[in-house]
Every structure is written in structure tokens, then in C-alpha cells.
């Protein structure tokens, strides 16, 4: 998938699906994930994720983990 990143502020951004590269994937073009960074640990961060789509216009929480920058 190809996602457009829209920064809202220094600790929050939206990912909007622009292109799907795999057939039968449970994401559609236009679906959005809101990411709120809650903690920074060295080159990693923890976040709260909320996904929005046609079936869930008010959003639903997605389990998140630790995301790290690969060097």
C-alpha cells in the first residue's frame, strides 16, 4: 500500500491510503489511520492508533506497538 502522510502537529499525523498493491486486502483507498505519538524512546516511539473507514466513520482503536527508525 502507498500512504499519504498528513502531519497535524509535532506528535500527530494521519495516514491516508492512496494506492493498494495487494489484492483482497482489508483496506480501501481513502481509509485513514490517525497516529498520536505518546512516548519517544531513543530512535523509537509508541503511539495510539485510530482507524477510520467506510464501515467505521467514527473510528476504532488499533493495537499499536513500538515503531523504530531503521538505520
UniProtKB/TrEMBL annotation:
Superkingdom of origin organism? Bacteria
Full protein name: Uncharacterized protein
